[in-house]
Amino acid sequence: MNVQEMEEIIKLPLDLILLDWNYTHDRAKSSKNSIKLKNANDDSLIITRNGKGHYLYWNPKVEDDRGNIFNFCKNRGIGVKDLLESKDLEKLKAPNAHTLIPNNFKKATLESVEKYKEIKELGEQNFLYDERGISNSTLSLFKTQIKQDNRGNICIPTYQYSTINDKVYYPQIGYVSYLKKQIIKDKEGQPYDKPLKQLCYGAKGLEILRLGEGKIKNILLCESSIDSLSLFELKEIKEPTLLCATNGIFTQAHKEILESFEQKENLFENPKVILGFDNDEAGNRNADKAKGCFKKFEVEIVTPFLKDFNDDLIARKLLKSRLYKQEEELSKEVVNMMLEVCNYKLESYNTIESKLNNKSKKDLQKETLQYVGRIDFLLKKASMHLDEPLRKNAQKSLEKFLESLQKEQVKEKSKIQSTNKGISR
């Protein structure tokens, strides 16, 4: 195979070729600049097309699994001819066969940055405060960096590592829009497997918000800027800090910018790196990759007690606000509060209680007790940020609630025994 033939093969739409090899489109994770494919073996691929028209791929789970169609075949022990067997090459070469246009990141970057600049600053009414529990005092620290568009979406700038004459700098290359209202269907009206919560504009980079003008003392890195802001508030940080977010998968672009931080002595002063990814398998992978980017800086990995640090922040605020209620109200409030915080699709204790006409009290107690263990477990986790008196008060309330249920069980059992004795007579 000569060079010209290889060039032509590299320009074939790789995503269409792989669809015949049991890969499927992940439309929720695809865009006009990249297509995500997946198969039944949990093999995930991101397909892009560069300015020369070459189709390239990379595997977000395997660092070295990347390149063009020849690399794809080599990494899987198959021949290119086998991959292309029975394919209509002339049809694949046709201009209308391509699902991706050659990326022109420069133009997209310029347009997205200009668009970001035109968006208004964050207003007092915003869903970060109303729905995500992030205080306005925290948000006001980043008011000029966090934008809010006409639909109420929150816009966070993204940056990329770059060099000019060996000098490192970080140009803005786009922004991420956190959607106030999630998108549940594509343009054809087909529902997504998972609703879209964010949209990326420009080239994908690292989301960064900066606190303070002096040398950076802390670097917070989470999966989303909502989590970074939540962790920042939970830790009550006052020093100059970078709040960073990967917006999902940890990429080569993220690695480059994070590794370069240790070269910027004029920007940092013995900073502490705090990694706060989600409490799941993907979060653990991202944390390990991010930790490997730092050789000199101190690194601490913190794990949220609930799914992410925004859940932890909401839990803390709900606990603190509701635990000041009167003693007799606490038992039901603790149960309702934990069900709300953890977003379980369960009926609250009050709602279940209202159905006593349809259920026996014994069934009610049994149904409630099924979740008490979970509630107790989650209460301990969510109370990580509580003052000791509040934490003890919450635990005491749950114990009282359990005690009252046990007393009701004893009464119910006693009634049943009395009834049985009456029947036996």
Condensed summary:
The protein has helices spanning 3-10, 14-19, 69-76, 80-84, 89-93, 105-118, 127-130, 136-140, 225-235, 252-260, 281-291, 309-322, 327-341, 349-353, 361-382, 388-424; strands at 24-25, 35-38, 44-49, 55-58, 66-67, 147-148, 154-159, 162-164, 167-169, 172-185, 191-202, 206-211, 216-222, 241-245, 268-275, 298-301. It has 425 residues and is α+β, with helices and mostly antiparallel strands.
Features:
alpha+beta, 16 helices, 5-stranded antiparallel beta sheet, 21% strand, 9-stranded mixed beta sheet, 3 domains, 425 residues, 16 strands
* Bulk shape: globular
Give me the secondary-structure category.
alpha+beta
Sheet with the most strands?
Answer: 9 strands, mixed
Average of pLDDT: 80
Radius of gyration: 27 Å
Q: Structurally, how many domains make up the residues?
A: 3
Q: N-to-C terminal Cα separation, in Å?
A: 98 Å
Indicate the multimeric state.
Answer: single chain
Helix run count: 16
Please estimate the helix content: 40-55%
Low-confidence stretches: 323-328, 341-359
